[in-house]
């Protein structure tokens, strides 16, 4: 998970100060020393760290905080607020131009994820905002980049504008905008050329496109895994192009956090989106406050709910709930439920969004082995329809057949059957408890 080391260190640091009935200046100093080290280790720019620590100290060593009833909590609040500010404060929105189409220029180094993000952004604009984007292949130096965008366009069933490798990128952009007007595409997303390093020719070309097309947004795509380098890249692009926002990619990897925590401070430009995987639906709006909350182990329930809303079929969820209540939950329902949860992403990421999840000792070391989930699925899929409805049918020969069919052992089949029974028992208990509560309310 991204930010893991930083999260662990910050959480153990704030844990020490959390419950204190009295906080001394010395306590705050010790805490900020640890926070400072944690940030530096996470590859956060040292100047950014220095300013950050200074602000925390100023705000925490303050009469009001120190003499409050819950000074420990107040200090943590300060840390969270400053961490949020560091990442940009408010979540920032994507521009909508007065005239149509709104033009977005995507810039960045090769390999940062620019082309992929162009596709992801178009997908998000259509899915969440009902927009109809046109993708523009303006990287004329790499035929592969044009092909890649065309492939993405096909996958998304979206138009891609290209004039091949011979045309001038400024002409390409202008003609694309004309086509968008004619075809009622309300967003134009231009995938520009990237290089391995920041280079003058490239910058001159991008400046030319900018001057001519006057884009409403210039998004710099940077790879979060590159830490401080990402910050340097962002600084140069911002100086030359005055970007409007940053998309941080590969936040699904085990990035330490340096880029996410430094870019806003160094460029004063917000991180607008985060790439959370290679797939086209793995782009999320970047919420500084939620991210700060996640890093400090306070959970991110809002994102979890949104994820569930995006991925879980509400009608199915209701049916499932009904079945749980009436204890008629079968293995088929179990399969369904697993598929829905899986569509929300890796289990570890979901757990990271629960407040205090990493403090639950049991959970901390549980490895959510996706393979094991597939094994469970294979076992259920090897059952007959009748067996899935009624596990009581299961006898030794059926178990043997299922084990063989799924390539698992009989003891694994037994374990699953046992877990399933336990789960049903638990559902029954929960339903009874709820009934009990309702009954009491009714009487009172
Ligand atoms: P470009 O050269 O900047 O256009 O980069 P590409 O779009 O070709 O992406 C480079 C590689 O990064 C590809 O293998 C992408 O699948 C991968 N990539 C892009 N965004 C993400 C992300 O958010 N997470 C992960 N894990 N991989 C990504």
Automatic annotation (TrEMBL):
Residues 270-283 form the SRP54-type proteins GTP-binding domain. GO terms for molecular function: 7S RNA binding; GTP binding; GTPase activity. SUPFAM superfamilies: P-loop containing nucleoside triphosphate hydrolases, Signal peptide-binding domain. Residues 430-444 are annotated as: Disordered. Its EC number is 3.6.5.4. HAMAP family: SRP54. This is Signal recognition particle protein. The gene is ffh.
